[in-house]
Design goal:
Layout lengths: L1 H10 L4 H8 L4 H8 L4 H22 L15 H9 L1
Helix pairs in contact: 1-2, 2-3
Length: 86
C-alpha cells in the first residue's frame, strides 16, 4: 500500500518533500528511490510533454506560432481562387 500511495502522489504532482513527510521518511532518497515507481500514466504525460515541446520548437523554427507553416494561410485559398475567377 505504501508504494501505491507514494506513487499516486507522484502521479498527481505532489511535491516530493510532501510525500516524504506523509510517509514519515527522514530521508527523501528512500521515498524517491524505493517507494516511487514510474507508471504508464507518468510515461504518457512525459511523451505528451516531449511531443508538444518538439512541435513548439518546429513551429518557432518555421516562424509560425500557430502551427501553420504560412501565417497568412487561413485555409481558404481554394475559396479565394473561386471568388477571383467569377
Amino acid at each position: 500500500m505504501r508504494h501505491t500511495f507514494i506513487t499516486t502522489l507522484a502521479e498527481r504532482d505532489v511535491h516530493e518533500r510532501t510525500a516524504q513527510h506523509l510517509a514519515g521518511h527522514e530521508d527523501g532518497r528512500m521515498t524517491r528511490e524505493i517507494y516511487t515507481h514510474v507508471t504508464r500514466r507518468m510515461l504518457d504525460i512525459a511523451t505528451d510533454t516531449i511531443t508538444k515541446a518538439v512541435g513548439d520548437i518546429a513551429n518557432q523554427a518555421s516562424g509560425s506560432p500557430g502551427g501553420s507553416p504560412n501565417p497568412d494561410d487561413d485555409g481558404t485559398k481554394g475559396e479565394d481562387d473561386a471568388r477571383q475567377a467569377v
